[in-house]
Design brief:
This protein is of the alpha+beta class and about 290 residues long. Helices cover about 60% and strands about 10% of the residues. A hairpin with a 6-residue loop joins strand 2 and strand 3. The two termini are about 20 Å apart.
Length: about 290
């Protein structure tokens, strides 16, 4: 039993490491073939390394490693051990893959196209790294340290750091560099969320109805989906009600709306996007 657990644990760590390597390689490819050739800024420690590269010609790979080193030392006692270890792995692999992909040719000289494509590629790479429990740098650690000294949240501090980097880039290289950087970061952030949460192919449906049992039975019979009933009380009327709750695939939405309409035309229906569903009838727990 213990041996099986040890093997599983080792396999999980190996999968995380492979994910970090793949993600870092994608981010490095994006930086060296799209971002650097078109002089687009970035956020975080990588953004600082890119600015230093534009100013002094320093290799981005070494700058990323050297800038993160003091932050890792500062965060050694301040952040969780697992987070720190995976951050060190993520940054080390990113530095190595940046060095290996340095001489790849630029894919385009269209700056807008590079910002958009780079945002998509970097977002995919970062999303894979985050799903593998990795991290790409010390600004995350710096933000955690600052939250213990100030009243700002981690998100606010990270946003502030990126804003300072973009302002410096605008002053040194012109406002267009910062504008393209904002486009790049916006797209990358959205793609990271998409990679982490998956395509929204599911919907949650909540029905407030006077016919909960009939609607639930028909959903279970026709769609073969599990249904949950909640007890509720109308705030205005004070009447006891039941709420039917169900998660379905997008393709089943029209069917469930027809079921509700046929059983209770006066029902109140709320439909929401569900980024990810794990469990019976949807994605298995394996890999999560």
């Amino acid at each position: 039993m213990l041996r099986r657990f040890r093997d599983y644990f080792t396999w999980q760590l190996f999968k995380h490491f492979i994910g970090i390597v793949i993600g870092a390689a994608i981010v490095s490819f994006s930086i060296n073939t799209l971002i650097l050739p078109n002089e687009i800024a970035d956020g975080g420690v990588t953004g600082i390394a890119i600015v230093l590269h534009y100013l002094f010609g320093w290799p981005v790979s070494w700058a990323v490693l050297l800038l993160n080193l003091p932050l890792f030392i500062m965060g050694f006692r301040m952040v969780g051990r697992d987070f720190l270890v995976f951050s060190v792995v993520g940054v080390s692999v990113l530095s190595a893959t940046l060095s290996l992909t340095t001489h790849l040719p630029a894919l385009t000289d269209d700056t807008l196209l590079a910002a958009i494509s780079g945002g998509v590629l970097s977002g995919i790479g970062m999303g894979i790294i985050f799903r593998s429990r990795g991290s790409l740098g010390g600004t995350d650690i710096l933000a955690v340290l600052f939250t213990r000294k100030t009243s700002f949240s981690v998100g606010q501090i990270l946003l502030g750091i990126d804003a300072v980097i973009f302002i410096v880039a605008a002053i040194l290289f012109g406002p267009e560099v910062a504008m393209y950087a904002i486009i790049y970061m916006f797209i990358a952030t959205r793609v990271v969320d998409l990679v982490q949460e998956g395509l929204s192919l599911s919907k949650s449906v909540m029905v407030v109805t006077s016919q909960p049992q009939r609607i639930a039975e028909e959903i279970m019979a026709k769609l073969e989906r599990g249904v949950t009933l909640f007890q509720a009380i109308g705030a205005f009327s004070g009447d006891a009600k039941q709420v039917v709750y169900c998660v379905i695939n997008r393709s089943e939405l029209s069917q469930i709306k027809e079921i509700v309409r046929n059983q209770d035309p006066q029902a109140f229906v709320a439909i929401s996007e569900v980024p990810e569903v794990v469990g019976e009838g949807f994605s298995p727990w394996k890999g999560h």
